[in-house]
Design a protein that fits this description.
homodimer; 565 residues; alpha/beta; eight-stranded parallel beta barrel
Amino acid sequence: MSNLISYPSSEKIYVEGRLHNIRVGMRRVLLTDTVNIVDRQRIVEHNKPVALYDTSGHYSDPAVDTDIRKGLQRIREPWITARNDSEQLRAFSSQYGNERLEDSSLDAIRFPVRNMPRRAQEGKRVSQMYYAQQGVITQEMEYVAIRENQLAEELGITTHITPEFVRQEVAAGKAVIPANINHPEAEPMIIGAGFLVKINTNIGNSSLSSGIDEEVEKAIQSCKWGGDTLMDLSTGKHIHETREWIIRNTPVPVGTVPLYQALEKVNGNIANLSWDIYRDTLVEQCEQGVDYFTIHAGLLKAHLPMAARRVTGIVSRGGSIIANWMKIHNKENFFYTHFEDICRILSQYDVAVSLGDGLRPGSTADANDAAQLAELYVLGELTRKAWEHHVQVLIEGPGHVPMHKIRANMDEQLRHCHGAPFYTLGPLVTDIAPGYDHITSAIGAAQIAWYGTAMICYVTPKEHLGLPDKEDVRAGVVAYKIAAHAADLAKGHPAASVRDNALSKARFDFRWKDQFNLSLDPEKALEYYRIGNLNDASDHCTMCGPHFCAMKLSKELVTTEQCIL
Amino acid sequence: MSNLISYPSSEKIYVEGRLHNIRVGMRRVLLTDTVNIVDRQRIVEHNKPVALYDTSGHYSDPAVDTDIRKGLQRIREPWITARNDSEQLRAFSSQYGNERLEDSSLDAIRFPVRNMPRRAQEGKRVSQMYYAQQGVITQEMEYVAIRENQLAEELGITTHITPEFVRQEVAAGKAVIPANINHPEAEPMIIGAGFLVKINTNIGNSSLSSGIDEEVEKAIQSCKWGGDTLMDLSTGKHIHETREWIIRNTPVPVGTVPLYQALEKVNGNIANLSWDIYRDTLVEQCEQGVDYFTIHAGLLKAHLPMAARRVTGIVSRGGSIIANWMKIHNKENFFYTHFEDICRILSQYDVAVSLGDGLRPGSTADANDAAQLAELYVLGELTRKAWEHHVQVLIEGPGHVPMHKIRANMDEQLRHCHGAPFYTLGPLVTDIAPGYDHITSAIGAAQIAWYGTAMICYVTPKEHLGLPDKEDVRAGVVAYKIAAHAADLAKGHPAASVRDNALSKARFDFRWKDQFNLSLDPEKALEYYRIGNLNDASDHCTMCGPHFCAMKLSKELVTTEQCIL
């Protein structure tokens, strides 16, 4: 039995597909009855269970054994093989990857199971975008359509999200299903303005800290609290092995910034970076199963003088590395000059490209400046190129932006990037709150997601100060789930308010446990409630005591006697 | 020496008035130099100190003795007496207040010093609004003008905030200076859309918890982290005595909901509430020095059926109490029927009225509904009545509101309340995050403050779950300082970005301590930094290690050699 993740009063359910033989996992929260006394009659009202979007995969299914040393079930493997457009390779294609696999000194830390990689057959295209453009509704597309609906039809709510709608959005590049054929453990999910707002979490060690076990634990924590995708930003030792453990054990798409590993391969010496080393790194990661790569291909030599005039220069790690490489060699960004080569590689595995914003503002003073916008325009140009190769595209956005300049970011992205989904880091709406930047950025993220950003990248309380630990991941994810859900409500997603309304009704009924079980973090809610409630507070609000409980008094206005639970 | 509150690398400074003999306290953060190596030359750049708005009063002045048992210095007393329009009374006017003072069983918990109250002389008006309408720029008005500017003129920044502008805004009712003549310990501050966004904090015990010492400690914590006003919402025992300790020791305006105490006086039996008991409570609190009262005078009998149809009914404590009173007696709200009497009392002490929103939505489902708006229109009507008595007015607002419905709240308030400052609780943009509602509500608060709300009432992580402790107060205040400051930036307050820019420059320079000292919570920033930094990280960002530090790399783009600090 797996119990790495459990939620109170919740059951794991699966909804079957109609087009395909698929089972879509969800969480269903069971509620107690509402009981009111009206005219001395006990009126009992049944409260329907609430189905929730669930990112925890098999970890929350008590019927499935999970084992970190074996990895998750490869649920997409039969779908991928049945398509007969990819082949399993007999060896890895990356020179570096093969060296790592042959290095016996790494045996102790290497992931125990070896899965041989798949690649598109010669002349075949394997991306969800390609299938969609051919009119094919894949298993992945039906999966996300069911998943996005959260059983709304059981409540009589019809949404616009059908498998055919998913296909159209993916075909048009307006939505991305990150789904490397070498990460069949991941449950399909979709990123696009027409869908629920998604959140990305970043984990990863640096040369200063954190081992493999801890990173896997953070990855699972991220999925527990609701992270939709996960970026492994490791820069320290054993990047290859750490990533393998993470991918094999993560039920959500995994992203990376391949440049980080390429730089480790040259011992941090930027001058020695080359296209060959980078290309080998791409292949290595494609065959491990990374679902999307951040590539800073829009930062050009011509932009560097603009960045030099800023308060905080370049704050993107990838951006600053490639900027220095350009300066050292006096050459154009090789991500840009080799962009078609990159797309050819990615298209063989269905790895999406997340076009990085190396010139995102690192302070509110630098927001929306000429450097930032110049890069954005290049990202729009690269989007079209990637689409020619049927490579799915995300566009990364800022950063630090004061509220009145947020809307312009969305507008410019829409104007120049042809509808590709926007994926922003926050933005942070002020610079003055280190230690609280999960809040500073959730304020901006909620707004930009409301305006149409498809995915928001979380920020933890340790941003600007250190690497997040497990509790920071929890704080960051929950802050971003709040922002994403607030945006879903504001955008009028038809099923988004079901959870709010069920929770608010529970609150008004003093069904405390139902309230907690429906909340984003039931454990925290219960913990805070217990601190304040040495006495039984079942029929009044715990803040105010019985005389001053507004909800109790308000209920008395409606019912004629006090409700007794 | 007082060291109840201290800030690192900061000095307490005072700016003198030009019109009046006043000294306005501020905090000034001292910065280290920027040092860059360019072409092997050491280039040193001096960084000017940054003046910050300071709510900590004398607690942060090492030159002043403070003693909780004596109370703060009564800085406004000479200004008030010199006006010669009020008189010191020989006895308190409240029957209840006098009984409490004569009760020897309360000697042990009573505040040790007794200050006799002042009241307007017969026929005289003592409110800041009245003075402003007479063309008088009071000490309070000049004080807030200096305070709002934060020494911007030293940086060559001219703002629109002059003493005359303050006078005009107060005269027009667009801004409020809460300044009871019986709370001369408070430093003047102003609440209005044309000024810096302010935050209110709520403290107070209930019958379930918390003693006087703890409440005074929370009050001082609130001022330390930046709370602009403080509401004492105590509902338990010893409300009178608790409030006296708080007022005498609080350098910011104090607000209350007098109904809470009135209900305690009738042992929680709503049926026994009466105008006489309430009137005596108003007088009692006016003479103690409460600066503003929340009064739920806009919730009328006709509104009750509207509230009964809601998901969460009435969630305002005061609103639900008066609603039940109306239902029991089948009478109109006595706050409404006695509103002119209330104004006559308040005008004798310059207590502002904060017109409570008893029908604020307690769930996103109830946002902007007919009940809420019906009450708002009545608040507009009452605003005009209060102004006839020269009573200053704030309008309270919601509550739980999804993002797309926030703007309408501000628009309706502007349309119906004649420019009186809006003062909102959040709003919370979703219902699903108990335990994190400081974040949920900061998202909404930042937006509504940007749209023009003058003061935002904080929410702590314990909202919906229990009473806040000292750490919750800190978390709530900092979250709201973020929201308020983000709104100041978005509104384009000319001096608001000085702090952001200074902090961001320090960040880019790896002047870690300057970065922390300029932040909203230097202690937290330093704590998080230390966790991640067993090694010296002075020349690179602590998240990424030296190879991957974007700021380090970016600096190298500009300077020719690595900066050595």
